[in-house]
């Protein structure tokens, strides 16, 4: 495992573009810290400071930071599809196989890299969230601080699942730009199917079915926190209530897609004439 990971990291760090994108993808989560310092001037009457609203209290902080940090995943997605594009354009894939690397090991090296960077990103957002929470939160009891750390697990699984999808499309089309375009096409197709099912059946069945789609299932791991923030300020508004928790069946769905994307990537490489 370490040998394959080291091999892939050497390739990425020797490429200036990949190295820059990796650096950006690790730096961007730190911009979550800026959320806590936002001050909004409301027509000159008063200044609204997000950090003083209580939204960075434990345990809500885990939900807030993982949701916003996950929006930056596209930068490393470019790295993932570039890993495959460069292998084909630079002929390094064929050379690696000639040098004794099996096709299974080749795919595993990419997957280990995805896990490694997802784990590093998760550790970073854990440290950031903990520091912001300790500064702003009025709760410091251990059971409260740790009560919603499942969002960190969801964040990690979300990154691994999305980057595995990028890996599959990279293997499918061999070109970075086309792979990213396919992700956008998949997003459109998911919503077209949702609209068609809502029209032919009903919205409830359509929504439940959509939650099994690849991109939607990954999004559902960490639901938007905006309603939750409003709920804390207006607890009597029953119409604002929604299920924002991380559920294990949602994690299972994404893990299933992840396994399928990795298997299909291997199948493409195994059956394709290089």
Automatic annotation (TrEMBL):
The chain crosses the membrane at residues 21-40, 60-84, 111-136, 151-170, 177-199, 251-269. It comes from the Bacteria. The keyword Cytoplasm does not apply. Keywords: Membrane, Transmembrane, Transmembrane helix. This is ABC transporter permease subunit. It comes from Mariniflexile soesokkakense.
């Amino acid at each position: 495992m370490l040998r394959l990971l080291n091999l892939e990291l050497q390739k990425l760090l020797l490429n200036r573009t990949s190295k820059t994108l990796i650096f950006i993808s690790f730096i961007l989560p730190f911009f979550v810290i800026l959320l806590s310092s936002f001050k909004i001037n409301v027509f000159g009457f008063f200044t609204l400071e997000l950090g003083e609203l209580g939204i960075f209290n434990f345990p809500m902080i885990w939900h807030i930071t993982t949701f916003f940090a996950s929006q930056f995943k596209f930068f490393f997605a470019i790295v993932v599809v570039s890993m495959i594009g460069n292998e084909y354009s630079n002929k390094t894939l064929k050379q690696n196989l000639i040098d004794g690397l099996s096709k299974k090991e080749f795919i595993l090296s990419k997957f280990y890299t995805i896990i490694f960077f997802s784990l590093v990103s998760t550790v970073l957002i854990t440290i950031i969230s903990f520091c912001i929470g300790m500064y702003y939160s009025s709760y410091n009891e251990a059971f409260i601080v740790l009560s919603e750390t499942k969002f960190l697990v969801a964040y990690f699984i979300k990154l691994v699942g999305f980057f595995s999808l990028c890996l599959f499309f990279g293997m499918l089309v061999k070109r970075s730009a086309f792979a990213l375009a396919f992700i956008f096409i998949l997003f459109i197709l998911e919503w077209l199917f949702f609209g068609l099912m809502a029209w032919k059946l009903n919205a409830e069945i359509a929504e439940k079915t959509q939650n099994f789609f690849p991109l939607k299932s990954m999004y559902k791991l960490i639901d938007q926190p905006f309603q939750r923030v409003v709920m804390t300020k207006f607890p009597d508004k029953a119409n604002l209530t929604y299920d924002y928790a991380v559920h294990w069946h949602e994690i299972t769905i994404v893990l299933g897609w992840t396994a399928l994307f990795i298997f299909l990537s291997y199948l493409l490489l195994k059956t394709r004439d290089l």
